[in-house]
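In the current project phase, we have settled on a layout for protein records. A sample record is reproduced below.
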Amino acid sequence: MSQVQEKIRELIAAIQACEEYGRYQNAKQAIEKYPVLKQSADDFCRHKFELQESGADLFDEIDRLQQEYMEIGSNPVIWEYLTAENACCRILRQVNWQLLEQLDFGADFGT
């Protein structure tokens, strides 16, 4: 096995052992007991992703997304799931950004 592959396995193990990932796994198990709540959370996440990717008029859409967030976020099971998922995503973004910052791939596109 290459050194890079070994380090990837170590990184995965470190993420799986961190508090944020454990919290996410617990929240995921909890919300999966309530399929309707899980569907609401998934719909919200899908809507948020589509909004980020669409390039649409963001002002109106952000207002709708905030309203949707307020509605589903009032449920503690959904709130914990979304919060825990967000914490895990922050870790993954941090890993990704650190790799991109430290490795020279010319990803600045001439800026």
Notes: The radius of gyration is 18 Å.
